[in-house]
Amino acid sequence: MQNQSSLQKLESIDYSLGINKLMVIGGLSFCFLIAFFIHFPIQRQVEGIVKAQLAQIPGCRMSFERLRIELFLPKIVLTEMRLPASCFGGGAGTKLPYVNLYFRGPSFSPLGLAFKVSTELYSQPLNLYYAAGISRQVIRVEEDKLSLSLISRISPQLPKLTGASKIDALVSLAGPRMDELKLSLESTNLNVPGQMMGDLKLPKIDIGNFSLKLESEDGKKVQLKEFIIGGVNSSIRGKFTGHISLAANAIAFSPISLKGEASFSPEFIEAFPILNLMLPQFTQVNNFYQINMTGTLGNMRPSSGP
Fold it and tell me: In angstroms, rounded to a whole number, what is the distance separating the alpha carbons of residues 62 and 95?
């Protein structure tokens, strides 16, 4: 009887009143959030933070036309982002039609916020990961199929390229200074199509394999762990290692110290007769010319290696 009486009491409870209260509280909370975002200048605050973070990137003073915050799939949208030529070491600079920063939660290294960044460069979609801390920023790029034609479009002074590459890069910034760099760029179908570069006519050059691996633990001295170009049947083959001392805000003036070897097919030497005048000064081992490279990235000076 006691159990039956307890059940009757439970059945007599009107739960709708509790549900209605929850709905009212939820509605008021939602209205409060909307009013907060409307009246509190949070967008202006975020815009100031983003501009301050961009200003800390050395040698690459990016800017944008407009910033807006979207609550659906929470993200920050930057429109018409301009990347000056200094970001690429020369050229004419470029513009990104949009940059979406999707909030991914807290970041623990650095301590701050983490975002997934989505954009488009010359019609190619690009995704990267970005973490912003109080005094440190980390950028991570992972792409399995990056079009190599982007390189010549960003830097017109370089020859046009075809093919695709896999890229894995990490850049860490402590304030305006880079304090860590890791870069791996690999391709199996790199080619240079026939083209004119000024008054020089370049023939088609089938390279094939390409691998570039860079590392820096302090952002000043960059170790060239691996630079490999060409395969067994390529018209040009080579491999180099060494280091680059980065010049602040002027990459082209960065001193280099590299050593390696290179080999050229008869057809390649015939296409570039000047090589017949230059190559005899280099020591040759197993058909590979031993080469040391000094000077700067913008003005390399080759000499014979050991």
Answer: 10
